[in-house]
Amino acid sequence: MATLCLTVNSGDPPLGALLAVEHMKDNVSISVEEGKENILRVSENVVFTDINSILRYLARVATAAGLYGSNLMEHTEIDHWLEFSATKLSSCNLFTSVINELNHCLSLRTYLVGNSLSLADLCVWATLKVT
After folding, report:
1. What's the confidence (pLDDT) of residue 93?
2. Which of 43, 72, 117, 129 stands 20 to 30 A from 81 (CA)?
3. Nearest-10 crossing angle of helices 51-61, 72-86
């Protein structure tokens, strides 16, 4: 596989994507550069600009990193938390109820999905960091 190229918005870098790249750098060849928008160039014909699409693609090609779970149920749960981060957690109006939901979910476990770090944990943390 050719080297992937991730361009990140230098004014508002996607922390979740940068964390994911750091965790999978031993499993996939990827370069990161600063720019005006977030873009993952896979090939001349394939480009992703949506952060969640970028994250899913990276996690799927770097399966050894284990960030996208180990089965269909975990994939779906991770997708849920990616959308949760992009919508509910990013909303100031819902912040208190969303934090309560997170506290409830994490009350008996360390990770949002499964028994190891996943994209879900990285994206929720990244969204909380900038909120």
Report:
1. 87
2. 43
3. 150
Residues in CB range of 30: below 8 A, 6 or more apart: 3, 4, 5, 6, 21, 24, 58
Sign of CA dihedral 110, 115, 116, 120: negative
How many Å apart are CA 53 and CA 106, to the nearest integer? Answer: 25
**According to the model, what pLDDT value does residue 39 have?**
98
Residues 105 and 77 in one domain: yes
- Which residue range(s) make up the domain with 29? 4-65
Strand (E) positions, 1-131?
4-9, 30-35, 39-41, 47-48
Query: Is this model's pTM higher than 0.85 or not?
Result: yes
Residue ranges of the chain whose pLDDT lies below 70: 1
